[in-house]
Write a structure and sequence with these properties.
By secondary structure, this protein is an alpha/beta fold. It has one domain. The chain is about 45% helix and about 25% strand. The protein contains 6 helices and 6 strands. Strand 3 and strand 4 form a beta hairpin. Helix 4 runs antiparallel to helix 6. The longest helix is centred in the first third of the chain and has 39 residues. The N and C termini lie far apart (about 80 Å). The relative contact order is 0.15.
Protein backbone atom coordinates (compact mmCIF):
# COMPACT_ATOMS: atom_id res chain seq x y z
CA UNK A 1 0.00 0.00 0.00
CA UNK A 2 2.88 2.35 0.87
CA UNK A 3 4.44 1.64 -2.54
CA UNK A 4 1.16 2.54 -4.24
CA UNK A 5 0.96 5.88 -2.34
CA UNK A 6 4.58 6.64 -3.25
CA UNK A 7 3.83 5.93 -6.92
CA UNK A 8 0.74 8.20 -6.82
CA UNK A 9 2.64 11.11 -5.25
CA UNK A 10 5.46 10.73 -7.79
CA UNK A 11 2.96 10.76 -10.67
CA UNK A 12 1.27 13.93 -9.33
CA UNK A 13 4.61 15.71 -8.94
CA UNK A 14 5.59 14.73 -12.52
CA UNK A 15 2.31 16.12 -13.91
CA UNK A 16 2.74 19.37 -11.96
CA UNK A 17 6.32 19.77 -13.18
CA UNK A 18 5.25 19.11 -16.77
CA UNK A 19 2.50 21.78 -16.53
CA UNK A 20 4.96 24.30 -15.10
CA UNK A 21 7.46 23.72 -17.91
CA UNK A 22 4.73 23.84 -20.58
CA UNK A 23 3.26 27.09 -19.23
CA UNK A 24 6.74 28.61 -19.04
CA UNK A 25 7.39 27.72 -22.68
CA UNK A 26 4.04 29.17 -23.72
CA UNK A 27 4.88 32.48 -22.01
CA UNK A 28 8.26 32.55 -23.72
CA UNK A 29 6.65 31.83 -27.10
CA UNK A 30 4.09 34.60 -26.53
CA UNK A 31 6.87 37.04 -25.62
CA UNK A 32 8.89 36.05 -28.70
CA UNK A 33 5.81 36.40 -30.87
CA UNK A 34 5.34 39.95 -29.57
CA UNK A 35 8.93 40.87 -30.45
CA UNK A 36 8.53 39.46 -33.95
CA UNK A 37 5.35 41.47 -34.55
CA UNK A 38 7.05 44.64 -33.30
CA UNK A 39 10.00 44.02 -35.60
CA UNK A 40 7.60 43.66 -38.54
CA UNK A 41 5.82 46.97 -37.83
CA UNK A 42 6.20 49.22 -40.87
CA UNK A 43 6.69 52.97 -40.49
CA UNK A 44 3.99 55.12 -42.07
CA UNK A 45 5.53 57.19 -44.87
CA UNK A 46 4.46 60.45 -46.44
CA UNK A 47 4.27 60.65 -50.23
CA UNK A 48 7.52 62.61 -50.63
CA UNK A 49 9.52 60.04 -48.63
CA UNK A 50 7.92 57.17 -50.52
CA UNK A 51 8.70 58.64 -53.94
CA UNK A 52 12.25 59.59 -52.91
CA UNK A 53 12.94 55.96 -51.95
CA UNK A 54 10.68 54.28 -54.51
CA UNK A 55 13.35 52.32 -56.34
CA UNK A 56 14.56 50.69 -53.10
CA UNK A 57 11.00 50.02 -51.86
CA UNK A 58 9.65 48.46 -55.08
CA UNK A 59 7.81 45.15 -54.49
CA UNK A 60 7.74 45.81 -50.73
CA UNK A 61 4.68 46.39 -48.56
CA UNK A 62 4.42 50.04 -47.57
CA UNK A 63 2.11 52.22 -45.51
CA UNK A 64 1.56 55.75 -46.78
CA UNK A 65 -0.67 58.47 -45.36
CA UNK A 66 -1.68 61.66 -47.16
CA UNK A 67 -4.55 63.76 -48.44
CA UNK A 68 -6.57 62.11 -51.20
CA UNK A 69 -7.05 64.63 -53.99
CA UNK A 70 -8.94 62.52 -56.53
CA UNK A 71 -10.84 59.26 -56.98
CA UNK A 72 -11.55 57.50 -60.25
CA UNK A 73 -15.24 58.10 -60.94
CA UNK A 74 -15.51 54.85 -62.92
CA UNK A 75 -15.99 52.42 -60.03
CA UNK A 76 -13.61 53.90 -57.45
CA UNK A 77 -10.71 51.72 -58.58
CA UNK A 78 -8.02 54.38 -58.09
CA UNK A 79 -7.26 57.21 -55.71
CA UNK A 80 -4.42 59.73 -55.77
CA UNK A 81 -2.53 60.83 -52.65
CA UNK A 82 -0.67 64.15 -52.68
CA UNK A 83 2.65 64.99 -51.07
CA UNK A 84 4.11 68.45 -50.50
CA UNK A 85 2.59 69.69 -53.78
CA UNK A 86 0.64 68.35 -56.75
CA UNK A 87 3.82 67.27 -58.56
CA UNK A 88 4.44 64.78 -55.73
CA UNK A 89 1.48 62.46 -56.18
CA UNK A 90 1.08 58.70 -56.08
CA UNK A 91 -1.66 56.54 -57.56
CA UNK A 92 -3.20 53.81 -55.40
CA UNK A 93 -5.08 51.02 -57.15
CA UNK A 94 -7.71 48.97 -55.34
CA UNK A 95 -6.45 45.39 -55.17
CA UNK A 96 -8.72 42.37 -54.73
CA UNK A 97 -8.85 42.82 -50.96
CA UNK A 98 -10.00 46.46 -51.29
CA UNK A 99 -12.37 46.08 -54.24
CA UNK A 100 -12.98 49.81 -54.55
CA UNK A 101 -12.31 52.99 -52.63
CA UNK A 102 -15.07 54.98 -50.93
CA UNK A 103 -15.99 58.37 -52.38
CA UNK A 104 -15.46 59.69 -48.82
CA UNK A 105 -11.70 59.43 -49.40
CA UNK A 106 -11.63 62.66 -51.42
CA UNK A 107 -10.29 65.63 -49.40
CA UNK A 108 -9.64 63.32 -46.44
CA UNK A 109 -6.39 62.01 -44.99
CA UNK A 110 -6.17 58.38 -46.07
CA UNK A 111 -3.74 55.68 -44.96
CA UNK A 112 -3.10 53.06 -47.64
CA UNK A 113 -1.28 49.76 -47.15
CA UNK A 114 -0.10 47.88 -50.21
CA UNK A 115 2.74 46.72 -52.42
CA UNK A 116 4.73 49.41 -54.22
CA UNK A 117 4.91 48.63 -57.94
CA UNK A 118 6.95 50.07 -60.79
CA UNK A 119 5.38 50.77 -64.16
CA UNK A 120 7.82 51.29 -67.01
CA UNK A 121 6.95 53.24 -70.11
CA UNK A 122 9.18 52.39 -73.05
CA UNK A 123 8.85 52.33 -76.84
CA UNK A 124 7.02 48.97 -76.81
CA UNK A 125 4.49 50.37 -74.31
CA UNK A 126 3.92 53.46 -76.47
CA UNK A 127 3.47 51.39 -79.64
CA UNK A 128 0.89 49.22 -77.87
CA UNK A 129 -0.90 52.38 -76.70
CA UNK A 130 -0.97 53.67 -80.28
CA UNK A 131 -2.40 50.36 -81.49
CA UNK A 132 -5.17 50.61 -78.88
CA UNK A 133 -5.97 54.11 -80.11
CA UNK A 134 -6.29 52.86 -83.67
CA UNK A 135 -8.69 50.15 -82.50
CA UNK A 136 -10.60 52.59 -80.24
CA UNK A 137 -9.65 50.38 -77.28
CA UNK A 138 -7.82 53.07 -75.29
CA UNK A 139 -8.88 53.16 -71.64
CA UNK A 140 -11.19 56.10 -71.02
CA UNK A 141 -10.37 57.92 -67.80
CA UNK A 142 -11.09 61.58 -67.23
CA UNK A 143 -13.34 64.04 -68.97
CA UNK A 144 -11.19 64.91 -71.98
CA UNK A 145 -9.54 62.99 -74.76
CA UNK A 146 -6.19 63.72 -73.10
CA UNK A 147 -7.13 61.59 -70.09
CA UNK A 148 -7.18 62.11 -66.35
CA UNK A 149 -5.36 65.22 -65.11
CA UNK A 150 -4.56 63.55 -61.75
CA UNK A 151 -2.86 60.69 -63.62
CA UNK A 152 -0.87 63.21 -65.65
CA UNK A 153 0.25 65.06 -62.51
CA UNK A 154 1.35 61.79 -60.90
CA UNK A 155 3.57 61.22 -63.95
CA UNK A 156 4.69 64.86 -64.06
CA UNK A 157 3.44 65.18 -67.62
CA UNK A 158 3.32 68.41 -69.58
CA UNK A 159 -0.13 69.70 -70.44
CA UNK A 160 -1.46 67.90 -73.52
CA UNK A 161 -4.60 68.30 -75.61
CA UNK A 162 -4.77 64.72 -76.85
CA UNK A 163 -3.52 61.21 -76.17
CA UNK A 164 -1.32 61.45 -79.27
CA UNK A 165 0.37 64.52 -77.79
CA UNK A 166 0.90 62.68 -74.49
CA UNK A 167 2.60 59.82 -76.36
CA UNK A 168 4.86 62.27 -78.21
CA UNK A 169 5.80 63.92 -74.91
CA UNK A 170 6.68 60.53 -73.41
CA UNK A 171 8.94 59.80 -76.39
CA UNK A 172 10.80 63.09 -75.80
CA UNK A 173 11.26 62.33 -72.10
CA UNK A 174 12.50 58.79 -72.82
CA UNK A 175 15.05 60.17 -75.31
CA UNK A 176 16.25 62.73 -72.75
CA UNK A 177 16.62 60.10 -70.03
CA UNK A 178 18.40 57.72 -72.37
CA UNK A 179 20.88 60.47 -73.26
CA UNK A 180 21.51 61.37 -69.59
CA UNK A 181 21.31 58.00 -67.84
CA UNK A 182 21.44 55.36 -70.56
CA UNK A 183 17.92 54.15 -69.66
CA UNK A 184 15.43 53.98 -72.52
CA UNK A 185 12.33 53.95 -70.33
CA UNK A 186 10.53 56.02 -67.70
CA UNK A 187 9.68 54.62 -64.27
CA UNK A 188 6.44 55.48 -62.51
CA UNK A 189 5.36 54.06 -59.19
CA UNK A 190 1.96 53.16 -57.78
CA UNK A 191 0.57 51.19 -54.85
CA UNK A 192 -1.39 47.98 -55.31
CA UNK A 193 -3.56 48.49 -52.21
CA UNK A 194 -4.43 45.66 -49.85
CA UNK A 195 -6.06 47.86 -47.19
CA UNK A 196 -6.94 51.47 -46.50
CA UNK A 197 -8.67 53.63 -43.93
CA UNK A 198 -9.80 57.21 -43.74
CA UNK A 199 -7.88 58.82 -40.88
CA UNK A 200 -10.09 61.91 -40.76
CA UNK A 201 -12.89 63.29 -42.89
Amino acid sequence: MNGFKFFGVTALLSVALLCTVSCGNKSQKDENKGVTEDEQTVAVLDVDSLLSNAEALTEQTVDVEAVCTHICQHGGGKIFLMGSDDTRTIRCEAGEEVGKFSQDCVNSIVRVTGVLKEQRIDEAYLQQWEAQLENNADEKHGNSSAGCSSEQKARQEEAANSTEERIANFRKRIAQRNEKEGKNYLSFYYIDATDYKIVNE
